[in-house]
C-alpha cells in the first residue's frame, strides 16, 4: 500500500540556477532534427510506446480515434490502456510492483503514488527537460510556476507535469431548488442547525429523498466526500492527502493560530457528532461508505439525491440533462453554512493541479523515444493540441460555428471521451471554454466564492530527515482518521463519549501523530 502523502519541498535558488544553466547546454528539439509540428515528423520511423491513462471517462475501446490520430501525427505505435479513476489504484500498483512500467502515464491523479514511484526510481526527472517543453512552460505565469516548484517537487525534483487550472471551479452544495421550494424552503440554509431542519422538511415532503448524496468510489472515497461537505462549516481543512496543498496540519485561527492536526481537534469531533445525528435520522445516504460513483449518479437521475457537495460546474450539466423533465431546477449555494458564530471558511487550493503525465526512467536509455514523447507533450500544450485533446476531431466530435467551438449534436465531454477517447490534457482549450456552459457556471461561482473568508496552504522547506519521518507515519494516521470517521457517522463508535474520543486520539498518537505534530510545530511556531 502506498503511503498517502505529498512532498512539499522548496527548491533552493542555487539549484534553480544550476538547472537553468544545465538547460542552456542541451540541444533543442529542432537542433536534434525533431519538431513539435506533427507535419514535420513525416519520415520518422514509428516507435513502439507503452501508454497508460487514468481516465475520468474511460473509452469504450482501447483502440480509438484519439490513439489513432496521435499515432499518425507523431509516428508512434501506442500499446494503450485506459484505467478509470473510479477503479482506484490497484491496477497501477500491480503494474509498478511487477516492473511492467509504461513509457508514459498520460494522466495520473494520485500524487502520493507519484512520490512513492519517484522514490523507487521508476520515474524520469521530467524537470530536467523543461527547456524542451517551451509551450508547456508558457502555460503558467511566474507565480504558478513557483507553486509547481514548491508543491509538485519531490526531493527538489519534478517527476510529474502538473496541469493548468484554466477554470476555477469551487466546490459547493448543489441542490434541487424546485424540491426545496416544494418542501417550503425558500433559501439555502445559512447555519448547520437550519441545514438539519431543512433536510427533515425535504424528507417529510419528498419520501423518495434518501438523504444527502455522497459521491462514492474505491476505498475511503465515500467518507472523504461526506466530510468535504461539512469541513468548511466547521472551519476545518477539507483535505488530508495533500492534493490541494492541505495535509490536515495548520495554524488554526480559532486556536490563537496554534499548530494543530485538524482531525484531532474538538471541531472535528463536533462535526462527527453532527453527522452521526444526520445519519441516524436518515438524512445522509445510508450506503455512503460503499456506494459507487455510478450508483450515486443514478440516484441523482431518479430524484433520490436532491443535494450533495460537488463542483459547481456540474450544475450546468445536470440542468441540461433535465431538459426533458420540466420543473427541475438545479442550483448551488452561494455560501457555506456555519456551525459556529464565525462564518464557514474557504480553504484555497494551490494554483496548479497536481494531475498530469509521468515518464518512465527507462527512457533515459532510449533517447529517440524520449524525444518523440516530449515532442508530443509540448504540442499538446499548444492551442491546436489543447483543442484536439479537449474536443476531438472537427466534424466528427465538434464543429466550428463562426468563432465558437461546439460539440456535435448529441455529444458532450463524457460521450466524446467514451466513444473516441478524447479528453482535456495539461490545459483546456481557450476556444472551447468560451462556449462551454459548465465553465461559465464555474466562473460565475468563483466570482462569488472568492469573496468568502479564506485561508491558503503553507509550503514548508522540510529537511530530508523530517520529511522521511512524516512520510513513514502519514498513511497510517490517515487510515485511523477515516476509519474512525466512518464508524462514528454510522453509529458504530460513540464519538460523544469522552473515553471513545480519547481512545481515538491515543490511536492517532500511537500511529505517529505526535511525532509529525512536533515537526510541523518546529517549522510553524
From TrEMBL:
Keyword set, alphabetical order: Cell membrane, Lipoprotein, Membrane, Palmitate, Signal
Name the UniProt record assigns to this protein: Extracellular solute-binding protein
Organism: Paenibacillus silvestris
